[in-house]
Amino acid sequence: MDDFAILRTPAQVIFGTGMASATGSLAAEYGDRALVVTDPNIAGSPGFNSVRTSLHEAGVDVRVFSEAVVDVPESTITEAVGYAAEYRPDVVVAVGGGSTIDLAKVTALLARHPGPLSTYYPVGSVPGPVLPLIAVPTTAGTGSEVTPVSVITDATTRMKVGIASRHLIPRHALCDPLLTVGAPRTVTAHSGMDALAHAVESFMAIRRPAAPSSVLSRPQVGKNPLSDTLALAAAGGICANLARAVDDGDDLEARSAMLYGSLLAGIAFGNAGVTAGHALQFAVGAATHTSHGLGTGLLLPYVMEFNRPARLAEMAALAEAMACTDPVAAVHELGLRVGLPASLAEIGVEAGEVRGLAEASIGIRRLIDNNPVRLDVDALEQILTAAWHGEPDRISAARV
Ligand SMILES: NC(=O)c1ccc[n+]([C@@H]2O[C@H](COP(=O)([O-])OP(=O)(O)OC[C@H]3O[C@@H](n4cnc5c(N)ncnc54)[C@H](O)[C@@H]3O)[C@@H](O)[C@H]2O)c1
Ligand SMILES: [Fe+2]
Q1: Mean of pLDDT over the chain
Q2: What are 322-347's pLDDT values in tens digits?
Q3: Distance 31 CA to ligand 2 centre (A)
């Protein structure tokens, strides 16, 4: 075993059906004013109501900001931060998918530290603790309830930017499968494939030499035995349950397994980091206005195939965990089975755009430098071209 491992997590991770009702007691530990961040779809749900009731029963005063928007545009951040400045909460509670939790993270950040938000784009530049955050996810999913990352849309470039700092890890993650039951079929499929991408990309990520300085300066340090254990368990659980959760959204057992898988994958990639697939999705998502999980799920088999020669042992371990002979084929088939588009061409990418997408992704060094095989624009173009055709085998064919 490598004798270097790291695990940064919330102070408390609580998982289980009905656990959303713990929110009130936890929030009351920080004071008597809670800003609850959510979106209009969730605000009227029974799960949201259970959170709100628990806050009320714990004697916590609540102000609800229910205008979270998918992909976290800057205008919404400005609005939420203004709301927080006026209310001066002791604690922030996020109830929603990754977009809502990420909005809550930057709201908690800007409530404690001066803007503009772009000050904190460089990795590890958040100067200290942010307002305490309790994250209650409603998708299975991004894992944002446990990660040091908030992904927002930059107003100038219109590209996604990940703000990464250990100070952005929520103080508590409250994972209640009941809250994911209402997630629509497409959201379930896309966010579930994203969770699988977190598990697999972090398991196949770069391995870095141990050094106290790099550990302290980076929230995500590359694969290590602790992240590997969680990533492998996550990949197995997600593969066994995603199609079930997509086919029957009321299947609480499958929902629970998915939320557990996305939680483990979130802790894994929150420490190890993700790789080329996520960097490429930032460009593909900006160009096609498709969801994060659609892009990361669609691109995953191509990135796996590209990285295969450097990660043969990991491929064998994934095959065992996922109960399949070839993990690349299994991930590709699972994506199609749950309704992902078959290719980048199918989501409107023109063949002539592929090179530009590769060029737009190469600058996302936090993710590009975390890939186990060195990447240049040609390599990214090769991955995207295979995905444009919908044929992972093109990458292996080019190797022989
Ligand atoms: N912070 C991180 O570590 C991290 C990791 C991966 C992705 N992300 C980001 O997270 C975002 C994607 O998050 P997501 O996939 O969770 O989706 P989302 O939060 O963008 O939500 C998608 C849609 O699903 C709806 N929804 C969510 N849960 C629901 C429920 N239980 N019932 C009914 N409707 C529900 C929402 O209202 C919204 O309309 C992207 O911006 C992505 O870049 C962040
Ligand atoms: Fe992701």
Answers
A1: 97
A2: 999 999 999 999 999 999 999 999 99
A3: 33
Please identify, by atom number, the ligand 1 atom nearest to the C-alpha of residue 41.
37
Q: Ligand 1 atom closest to Cα of 148?
A: 3
Correct CATH for 12-180 of 3.30.70.60, 3.40.50.20, 3.40.50.1970, 3.40.50.620: 3.40.50.1970
Q: Is 265 helix (H, G, I), strand (E, B) or coil?
A: helix
The structural domains of the chain, with segments of one domain joined by +, span: 12-180, 185-399
Strand partners, 161: 152
Angle at 84 between CA 82 and CA 86, to 5 degrees: 70
pLDDT, residue 148, reads 98
Q: Which ligand is nearest to the CA of 159?
A: 1
Domain 12-180 and domain 185-399, same fold? Reply is no
In the block, tokens 């990940």 appear at 162
Here the tokens at position 31 are 């004071």
- What is the DSSP pairing of strand 91-96 with strand 133-137? parallel
DSSP state of 162: E
Low-confidence spans in the chain with pLDDT less than 70: 1
Q: Is 267's C-beta closer than 6 angstroms to any atom of ligand 1? A: no
Q: What is the pLDDT of residues 83-140, one digit of tens each?
A: 999 999 999 999 999 999 999 999 999 999 999 999 999 998 999 999 999 999 999 9
Whether CATH 1.20.1090.10 fits 185-399: yes
Ligand minimally distant from the alpha carbon of residue 192: 1
What is the structure's pLDDT at 1?
A: 56
Alpha carbon of 52 to ligand 1 centroid (Å): 20
Task: For residue 353, give both structure tokens.
Answer: 């755009």
